[in-house]
Design brief:
Number of strands: 2
Distance between the termini: 45 Å
Order of helices and strands: HEE
Oligomer: single chain
Length: 69
Amino acid sequence: MPWDGPEPYAPIGVPLVDLLDRVLATGVVVSGDLVLAIADVPLVRISLHALLSSVNERMPAPWPDSGPL
């Protein structure tokens, strides 16, 4: 739904479904770090990386047989 405000540079609303469709069509990488600490002493650090993308039936599988399993 577009912004109906009087400002010329008002934000334009984008439905969440359209935003999710664009993100999954192109793919997105999500990354972050988690540090567990006690008394300001870091004990465990975990780095998280995830690739989010959609699957297309028209794309051939990269494996010569039915799959990796």
